[in-house]
UniProtKB/TrEMBL annotation:
PANTHER family xrefs: FAS APOPTOTIC INHIBITORY MOLECULE 1, FAS APOPTOTIC INHIBITORY MOLECULE FAIM
UniProt entry tagged with the keyword Cytoplasm: yes
GO cellular component, one term: cytoplasm
Highest taxon in the source lineage: Eukaryota
Protein source organism: Psophia crepitans
Name of this chain's protein: Fas apoptotic inhibitory molecule 1
Amino acid sequence: MASWEEITVCEDEVRSRYSYLEKMTDLVAVWEVALSDGVHKIEFEHGTTSGKRVVYVNGKEEIRKEWMFKLVGKETFTVGAAKTKATINIDAVSGFAYEYTLEINGKSLKKYMENRSKTTNTWVLSLGGTDYRVVLEKDTMDVWCNGQKMETAGEFVEDGTETHFSVGDHSCCIKAVSSGKRKEGIIHTLIVDDREIPEAVE
């Protein structure tokens, strides 16, 4: 015969599995947003019978509204270290079908990411078995690595500028050199331990 403890554990397991399944049935949208401090996963649950709305950022519950009589509308919250403004728009398409769109800083996710690719450079590399994501914000020259804003030292060199920082015991440098072409502007290159790192496309 099973002990009382085993039965309790069993019941808890079933309950947590059930609540997890119950939770997943209302999941209607998942987005991945690449910001300077990392890639953030946004999940949205919408109960079309109860009007329930739940927003998760990186698995953490940010907003929960259980009973909403209005099934359309918007939910606004912040994402990442810089508290970037995000809004989920809920629109009725037809009958009981809904469309969910994500806006970041007032722009559609697509527009925001297109604009971001013009204002940032991203490199992904592996050092000593650890993966790193380095982001340069071109307007401020801030450098982020795996969610941390790095201490940097900038210097002018003959053909442009160099921004120095270190990751662990690796010396890193972002070189900024004019392309000589107006359309291309300045070319940024990441060099780690004298090795050039190719830019990542997000």
